[in-house]
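Design a sequence for this backbone.
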């Protein structure tokens, strides 16, 4: 039978990188390829108590349909505690199935075929796959070690005044680990207002800062509803619950709620209640501190191993948080070639290619340090360095 797919579905193709990453399932392989939180940090015993409490207290309620907007207590807690210096009423929060659903809804609400959207160069692969369904045209903004270069952003907006929105990951960006300084955050909001474009602030990593003070979000500089903030519990709690949120102005959140209703009515009632009850029975800040302690050590071990084993002209930023380190190799090197060789020696990473919306750069790789033990990180970086050495 000929599949009579919609035109946009005909263009969907399996990501090349997903095919490559299948190779990383090999037994005994040290993988820096994923972005998975460390499963040993999931609060299993606490969740058993939480589930017991929920079924005793709420019974049938948690297995029933519920509000599209999401659990009211959960939205109140998020509005009051999870966006640092942004405090919003629950009415401005919609619970989503991870921030990935926030990205999809953003595409659904704002992108018509051929619409221009701005993103970082490079940017989060999952955002590209979410937006691609709606067939945008990407305008990439150059980055330095501190994130988007504001002058380039303004330049791109000047020459593309019809841009729909700016998509940015300001804290410990995926894939580069870069963090946007406070003055650039302020400037970005000023520019958004000047050119009347929205900012999508995707912030899964802001709470995972291992040194210094957390920066104020871009949203905190916005009094006029230009910034839409996407948050998630995936990296500070458990990704399997699939709980994230969108925070936006009254008129915008109303549109997102309508899209949510048409997509899946609401998020899993039980998962939302589990999160609320966990936060009532236990201290989530303490839990996040434990996660940070473990990741800080793993990051330090990876940085030390990079320093010790890598050729001196391999460049990287000593990131202060998040899950990733981004390596820049000699321009003549293609990291996909290195990937194949590395997998043969039982170590893997993500070649940088697929994080570029348009103009692919081939000499970068993303390393994740959250899901491997300190010993495996040391051994893995040693092996990877040996492979890279052969190309220097
Ligand atoms: C930048 C960024 N945005 C969004 C997501 C999606 O996260 P989730 O849907 O689990 O909340 C991720 C996941 O890795 C990410 O790195």
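Sequence:
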């Amino acid at each position: 039978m000929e599949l009579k797919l919609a035109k946009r579905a005909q263009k969907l193709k399996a990501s090349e990188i997903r095919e490559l990453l299948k190779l990383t399932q090999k037994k005994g392989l040290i993988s820096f390829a994923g972005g998975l939180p460390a499963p040993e940090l999931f609060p299993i015993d606490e969740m058993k108590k939480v589930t017991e409490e929920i079924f005793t207290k709420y019974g049938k309620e948690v297995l029933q349909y519920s509000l599209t907007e999401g659990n009211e207590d959960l939205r109140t807690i998020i509005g009051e505690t999870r966006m640092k210096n942004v405090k919003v009423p629950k009415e401005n929060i919609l619970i989503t199935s991870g921030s990935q659903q926030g990205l999809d809804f953003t595409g659904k609400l704002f992108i018509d075929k051929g619409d221009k959207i701005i993103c970082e160069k490079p940017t989060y692969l999952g955002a590209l796959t979410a937006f691609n369904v709606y067939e945008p045209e990407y305008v990439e903004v150059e980055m330095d070690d501190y994130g988007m270069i504001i002058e380039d952003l303004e330049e791109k907006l000047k020459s593309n005044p019809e841009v729909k929105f700016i998509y940015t990951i300001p804290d410990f960006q995926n894939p580069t680990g870069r963090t946007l300084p406070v003055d650039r955050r302020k400037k970005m909001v000023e520019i958004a207002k000047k050119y009347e474009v929205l900012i999508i602030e995707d912030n899964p990593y802001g709470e995972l800062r291992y040194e210094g003070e957390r920066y104020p979000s871009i949203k905190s500089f916005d009094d006029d509803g230009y910034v839409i903030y996407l948050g998630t519990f995936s990296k500070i709690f458990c990704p399997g619950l699939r709980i994230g949120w969108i925070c936006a102005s009254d008129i915008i959140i109303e549109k997102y709620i309508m899209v949510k209703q048409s997509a899946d009515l609401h998020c899993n009632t039980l998962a939302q209640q589990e999160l609320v009850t966990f936060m009532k029975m236990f201290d989530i800040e303490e839990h996040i501190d434990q996660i940070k302690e473990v990741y800080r050590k793993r990051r330090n071990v990876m940085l030390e191993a990079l320093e010790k084993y890598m050729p001196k002209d391999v460049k990287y930023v000593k990131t202060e948080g998040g899950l990733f380190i981004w390596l820049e190799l000699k321009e003549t090197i293609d990291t996909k070639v290195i990937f194949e060789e590395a997998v043969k020696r039982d170590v893997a990473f993500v070649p940088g290619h697929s994080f570029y919306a348009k103009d692919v750069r081939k000499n970068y790789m993303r390393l994740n340090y959250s899901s491997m033990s300190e010993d495996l990180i040391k051994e893995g970086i040693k092996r990877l360095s040996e492979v890279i050495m052969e190309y220097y």
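The chain has two domains: 7-43+286-389, 61-281.
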